[in-house]
Amino acid sequence: MIFVDKLNMNKKINFAMGVLVGICIGFVLVKTISVQKSSKISNTTKTQILIGEFPECRFDRCPTFFSVDVDGDHLPESLVVQPTAMTQGAGQVLVIKNGKVIFQSDELPQLSVKPYDGENGFILEYSSPRDFVTSSSQYEVRYEFKNGQFVVGKPIKTGSISSTPQTPEEEAKSLVIKFEDLQKKRNSDVLKLFTPSASKEEADTYSFLMALDLENSSPRLFKTAGFGYKVIEYKLGSILKAEKGFRVEVEEARSSYDNTGGGWVNVGKKVYVFELVHIGGNIMVDKYYPKDGNHGKYDGFL
Known about the structure:
Elements: H1 2-50, E1 64-68, E2 77-83, E3 91-97, E4 100-104, E5 112-115, E6 122-127, E7 135-146, E8 149-152, E9 156-162, H2 168-184, H3 200-210, E10 229-241, E11 245-258, E12 263-279, E13 282-290
Antiparallel strand pairs: 1-2, 2-3, 3-4, 5-6, 6-7, 7-8, 7-9, 10-11, 11-12, 12-13
C-alpha cells in the first residue's frame, strides 16, 4: 500500500514538473518571437527614416516647395527646388512622395521648375554653365512619368542671359568667402573645397577630420572637443597672385567652447592663409593654415 502511494506521488510530481517545463519553454518561445517581431519593426522604421535626403536651407538659400500631381495618380506630390551652392542659383529638383525622395535631378545652374500642363510630369528650367563666357543659354526640359519612372525629354533652348565673367581674383575671393561662411555655420563641407591629399600625412589628417577611421560616425571637425571652435566674423585681407594660383590672407575672430560650463568664449583674432590653385578649370583650396604657425594643408583647423 505504501509502495502504491509512493508510485502515485511520483507520477504526480513528474506530471507537475512536465507542466512547469512546458510553461517555461512556452514563455521563452513567446519572448523570442516577440523580440524578433520587435526587431523587424525597428529595422523597418529605421530604413524609412533613412531613405532620401530631405530639403534644407543651404548657403543662405532655402528650398522652394510646390504641391503638384506629377505621376498621374491624382494625388499631389511635393516638388522641391533644393539649393546646392551660393552662386549661379545652382540647385536640384526633388520629388517627394509619402515621405520618400523618389526622384532627384542633376545639379544645374539657374534652376527652377514648373508644372507640366498635361497629364503628368513637370518642366525644369535652367541655364548652361557660364564657365567664364559672356552669355549663358536658357533651356527647359520636360520630365514625364512612364512605367514607374521619370523619363527625360529633349532640352529646348528658350533664350540666353548676358553675364559679366568673373576675373580670377573675383573667383579666389568668392571661394574664400564660401569657405569662411561654412566655417561660421560649423559645416564640415569646407573639406570638400580642398584639393586631393598629396601625401600620406595629408590623407591621414583628412581621414581623422572626417572620422573615416570610425564606422558610421559624423566628421570630427567642429563636433569634437579638439575642434570645438567657430568663426564669429572674418575680414578679407590681401589677395596676391602666386605661382599656381593665389595666396589670400583672412583675419578671423574665433570663439572656443568651454566644456566646464562657460559656454562660448572669445579667443581673439588671428590671420590665416589660403593657398588657392586651379584644377580642371576650378579654383580650390590647396592649403589653409595660420600665418604664424605650421603651414600644413589642414593646419588652419588644428
